[in-house]
Amino acid sequence: MLCPLPLLALLCCGGLCGRCWALDGAAAAVTNPTCSLKDNCNLGDNLLSVSADSDPVESHIASIFEDKVNYSLKLFADDANAAIAAATTTTTTTTTTGSSSSSTTTVLDVLHDALAAANLSELHHHATTTTTTTSRSTANYTLRQLSDKREDDDQIEDDERVYLYNIGKRFLAISQPFDAARNPDASPLCRAQMRRYLKALNNFDLWALKMHDASGKLNSGILNGNINQPGDFDQCMGIQQAHDDVTGGNNNDDKQANSPLRGQYCLAYAQPVLPHKSKRLQTFFKLLQSHGPFKSEFNDPGHRVPRYSLINWGICVPSGCTHRDVEYSVAEYLRNQTAATGISFNVRVEPQMCQVRDAQPWDRNTTWAVRFFVLVVCLAVLSTVYDRSTKTQPKQNDWCTAFSLDKNLRWLFSTRSSPGDIEAVHGIRFLNAMMLIFSHKSMAMFFNPYNNRTAMSESLGQPWTVIGRAASLYTDPFLLFSGMLTSYSLFGRLMKQQPIRLKNEYISRLMRIVPPLAALILFCTYVLPLWGSGPQWNLVVGHHADICKQHWWRNLLFIHNYFGFSEMCLTHTHHLGIDTELFAVAPLFILILWRWPRRGLLALLLLCTVGTAARYYTTIVNQLSNYIYFGTNIQRLFRTADYMYSFPPHRSTVYIMGILLGYALRKYQGAQLSPVQLRLGWLAATVCVLASLLGPAPMGDINYVYNSTHAAIYAAFAPIAWCLFFSWIVFVSHNGYKNKLTRLFSWRGFQVSTKLSYAIYLTQFPVFFYNVGRRRHIHHYYNFISVILDTNEFISIFLASVALTVLFDAPFQNLKKLLIKRPAAAIQPKAPATTTTTTTTTPSTMPTGAALREREPERERKLESEPELVHLQAHPQPHPHAD
């Protein structure tokens, strides 16, 4: 037989050179194929092809066959290259021995025969038999090794495909993928991306598995309240699938299917409906909904009060689908699952609850908001630098040091008090502020998913939880002290015949409370939404920011308490509106009481009686509840807030009590009380505090049924009893009757909390709901204390309060002092006659010479604060300069 190697060399050197080069190029193309069958493209001259809708088993077989063909072509290319190399080193003669010219065979003949027989491995066999003995043995050994290794790799790949195919089928059989394109009105983009997702999931592609895995699924502990399944938010939002490289892009559906696909997280709400009265199913649903400490509906606002009765379910879908597509598909799925069971579900997916990770540029308002805060920080830094550099000078420019961090921090953490200060007020403020924080925190924690929510509700359905349910009770002492300090200041100036300029008083008040409030509104509206993300972020942070964008002006005009809680920006600031409106009419009440003491007293008592009766009547007629009893209806809670809790006439009773208390502190200053009077007073005060705090305790029981009479009695009389207790403490403490309780409330350290109290009041809700919005996963409830005493939250509130105070509160008080100056002529003649117990401080009575420089900020504030109408900053927190 003729050796083909010289012939191959001759052909390559002769007229068949073009074919050899073509053959070598084809071999190189086969060695490094540019596509494979699993990419649905053709190989070679369409030797193999698989349609897009082929069966997975057929695709599996075709893939195996493709690997065999590729391997055979690679061997052929290697042998052809070896033959060409051997031909270049041997003689160019084409004569052979031992065979006739009729039996001469060329490489092209072998290739033709191999292709005709559809067995490319034959070419390899024929080529190896024509080499020399040494070359043949070495080549056969090498090829045999490669062949064995290739066969092992092929077997591993074959087994892997089979395993993945079986795993995928069983995995999807356990948990069916969610198809958002079942909506008849689904967009073509949604349908195309869903087909792409389901196909990739069938092929066990990693990104598709992540999307399916990120959706919430039923878990154990359903009867223990583990029904809310948020899924994996970060895994869903992290899915980024680029274009697919598919031949032929003329079809519009193909273009949409191959568009960039991103994970979209949607939080769906489902409410089970049980039309028939089956006791077993009712018991089951009662456990499913964790006994319903809050009963809610779809239409209830959910950005500040939890819609506890709804089931929250996190679903991950392609970004091309809308909230309507998800809502329809979830409803259809639940309808199919509950067919013929008598159970149905109402489903809702709100537009803002579908989120896609999409970095968008800041809008103009956000940019200006960030610039504003940067400007304030820079101003504070420059003012601090000036303050430090001019410390040694005898006189500093007060305008340049107004924003100094050193100056404002020294004042903030100073515990010095002025003569005549009502010291017990500071401790009472701190107590009620902390109780109010616990109440607000207990409301926020019901937003979070727990895997033992039923056990949590059972532990909280006890009478002792009154400490967290009486939130409205803890706000009344701040109204009390606001009226007290206003009347105490005004009566003091009237007794000394000092001028009262109401215009300056109102301007002074606005300069106290507006800058921190405006800064917080600006921050929560444009900056805070950029700081985080989470399953409920757009509900408790984003939706609230949208409300503030529309209605921020109501807050700055202090009329937002008249427009309802559902559309209120910073709902917890409704007391600012109440206190400001009552402060506006307080001078009229004080003037009547000053001019006609007896008639004025009777008039104010009559107003208190009317307010009390109005609260009782309104509660009965509108079925309200000022106490958050177990099973509170969310609609009733909002009606209570709109009709009574944020309505100034209904809250005026305790404010008028404060006016009367301030009048008593001035008129009966240094009053002498006998031991019997003190005992009776403390006994009555103790009865009042127990009645107001423990009286409604049974309403917190898990089996409590709403009773309008109970709610009316609590709304009418609990605020009065609670405030009478603290009024007695203030009265006896200010007149020198001390005991352990009054000394505790009079501790000097509480002055720092008083200065921070307004900022704490403003910042606590943003901090609470920031953490609610970014909560990703389900937690386990252990006990009430571990949830309420969240160290990270308390530290965050403290730091935010300090920043708000030193950047906005204190600096604007410094500016107010410079802008509104009091005439000294009317004050100085009366200064020598001023007793040490009054809170009025004039320039002639201020310490001189020996006073330390650190006391100057406090001295200047005291000089300006008392001649004004001193007040508490509405709601929970008084203004830090009120004293």
Topology:
Elements: H1 4-13, H2 17-31, H3 56-89, H4 107-116, H5 121-128, H6 133-174, H7 188-202, H8 206-214, H9 233-237, E1 240-241, H10 252-257, E2 261-273, H11 279-288, E3 294-295, E4 311-318, H12 323-337, E5 344-348, E6 354-356, H13 364-389, H14 405-412, H15 424-445, H16 453-460, H17 466-469, H18 471-495, H19 502-527, H20 537-557, H21 574-595, H22 597-622, E7 632-633, H23 634-645, H24 648-667, H25 675-694, H26 708-734, H27 740-745, H28 750-774, H29 784-788, H30 791-819, H31 856-865
Parallel strand pairs: 3-7
Antiparallel strand pairs: 1-2, 2-4, 2-5, 2-6
What does this structure look like?
The structure is a single chain. This protein is mainly α and 883 residues long. Helix content is 59%, strand content 4%. The chain has helices at 4-13, 17-31, 56-89, 107-116, 121-128, 133-174, 188-202, 206-214, 233-237, 252-257, 279-288, 323-337, 364-389, 405-412, 424-445, 453-460, 466-469, 471-495, 502-527, 537-557, 574-595, 597-622, 634-645, 648-667, 675-694, 708-734, 740-745, 750-774, 784-788, 791-819, 856-865; strands at residues 240-241, 261-273, 294-295, 311-318, 344-348, 354-356, 632-633. Strands 1, 2, 4, 5 and 6 form a 5-stranded antiparallel β-sheet that branches. Helix 18 packs across helix 26, helix 19 (502-527) runs antiparallel to helix 20 and helix 19 runs antiparallel to helix 30 (791-819). It is globular, with a radius of gyration of 41 Å. It starts with a helix and ends in an 18-residue tail after the last helix. The model is unreliable at 1-54, 89-108, 114-141, 245-249 and 823-883 (pLDDT under 50).
